[in-house]
Amino acid sequence: MNKTLVSIALWALGGWLLGAWLGAATGWALLALGLLAMVLVSGLQLSRIARWVRNIDDPPPPSVGPWDEILAPIYRKLKQNRLELQERARNFQRALLAAEALPDGALTLSPDKTLLWCNQTAAEHLGLNPHQDRGHSILNVLRAPEFAHYARQDHWDKPLVLHLGHADHTRTLMLHLAPYGAGQFLMVTRDITQIERLENTRKDFVANVSHEMRTPLTVLSGFIETLHDMPDDALTPEQRQHYLQLMAHQAHNMQALVADLLTLSSLETTPNQPGAPVALAALIQTALTQSQALSNGQHHFALQVDDTLQILGQESELASAVGNLMTNAVRYTPAGGTITIRWARQADASACYQVQDTGIGIASGDIPRLTERFFRVNRGRSRATGGTGLGLAITKHVALRHEATLDIESTPGAGSTFSLHFPADRVCAHKNS
Ligand code: ADP
After folding, report:
1. pLDDT exceeds 70 at position 1
2. What whole-number percentage of the chain has pLDDT above 90?
3. Distance from residue 316's CA to the centre of ligand 1 (Å)
4. Domains of the chain, first to last
5. How far apart (Å, rounded) are the C-alpha atoms in residues 315 and 323?
6. Is residue 136 exposed (0-12), middle (13-18) or buried (19+ Cβ within 10 Å)?
7. Does the pTM exceed 0.90?
8. Model pLDDT for residues 284-341, shown as the tens digit of each residue
9. For residues 18 and 34, what is the distance between their CA atoms, to the nearest angstrom?
10. How many angstroms is it from 328 CA to the middle of ligand 1?
11. Distance CA 147, CA 318 (A)
12. Where is average pLDDT lowest: 26-35, 165-174, 240-249, 421-430?
């Protein structure tokens, strides 16, 4: 502005001096000419400024006379605002990315519970389509009566556990609403399907163990009461012996159950380490001695064992797997049957431990369930032969910990073959071979 006033003053002074020398009319003419020139220059500068305004992110045009002083601070402020805006956008983006990375679902609701925003996990949990459902009431989107009741509460001390989905694909969610900001709501969703399943498995397991313990305990206490209430001479020594044998059998069943439970627990709690080379042939020999004792000469045993082969693993775990498969073959094969035990390297450098029997066999429908805890095809036969219903569950667990697979082939009435396949990188040869 000062520059403009100075220019006008200079033109006026020039006009006055010229007027004094060449006459007033010439002086006025010079002043008019000067002012016209100033208006023209100003017009030009304004048109350059107008062009700049259309691309306001560019630096302002240079040398626009008096406008320089106005444009420079405006441009500085604009630039600063732009940087601040970018920083805020970056912060917002970071917050959004953090919300997306949450392991839980999160969604925000307006005061009237319409959906404002949700992360991908919440969309997955609740089956939302973030684009379509945004702006709709969450009560219309999530149509579960328990949720409607929960969402209409005034405050939410406890989360809501909701079962969503259909028969074969149900999902258990834990939802928690909390007010925030100016009357808005934050809802956190967590998928607890797996936790609930584990909890159910745990409950079933406890129920099964109690049931398994109750039977021998009931029998034992029954015998003890009977013996206690009877006069000493009411039983012959043979009868007394018979009762004691039955009691010992039940006590043995309980001991076996506790031993298997401890083995399972240790398999579940001890970390899986690569282990050391284990000579499986030695373990097979020990198991054979036990199985022959169990068989009591009623079965024929055939052995095809490569005693140079070793497996990297845990000796006690492998011993239990080797023993379980062999004693099962004895227990489920009627007298006179043959049990063939093979331990050999395969063409692909893996190794296979196989127990084949000519026993009662297993119906194909039952095979997938054999490794479930406490699953038995024939409860009576299992119990009578001292079974706990945990042997194959343990064997499967041991196999997994040794990266091995357990394959079962069986024909009812003809016999079964149980094979443990160890991968090549677990197999090593005996140092003396
Ligand atoms: P159990 O202590 O009852 O034998 P396991 O887990 O070892 O428990 O085996 C589960 C079930 O698998 C057994 O109850 C039996 O029905 C079946 N089974 C296991 N091995 C054999 C086999 N060699 N032949 C026939 N059935 C078998």
Report:
1. no
2. 58
3. 21
4. 2-82 (no CATH), 102-191 (3.30.450.20), 197-269 (1.10.287.130), 276-429 (3.30.565.10)
5. 12
6. middle
7. no
8. 999 999 999 999 999 999 999 999 999 999 999 999 999 999 999 999 999 999 999 9
9. 13
10. 6
11. 51
12. 165-174
- The pLDDT of residue 167 is 63
Ligand 1 contact via 367 beta carbon (within 6 Å): no
Other Cβ atoms closer than 10 A to 271: 5
Q: Phi, psi (5° rounding) for residue 375?
A: -80, 130
Ligand 1 and 328: CB distance under 6 A: yes
Q: Which two tokens stand for residue 29?
A: 């003419």
DSSP code, position 58: S
Q: How far apart are CA 100 and CA 92, in angstroms?
A: 12
Q: How far apart are CA 366 and CA 363, in angstroms?
A: 6
Q: Is 56 helix (H, G, I), strand (E, B) or coil?
A: coil
pLDDT for the residue numbered 433 = 47
C-beta of residue 415 within 8 angstroms of C-beta of residue 355? no
Q: Is 148 helix (H, G, I), strand (E, B) or coil?
A: helix
Asked if residue 320 has its Cβ within 6 Å of ligand 1, the reply is: no
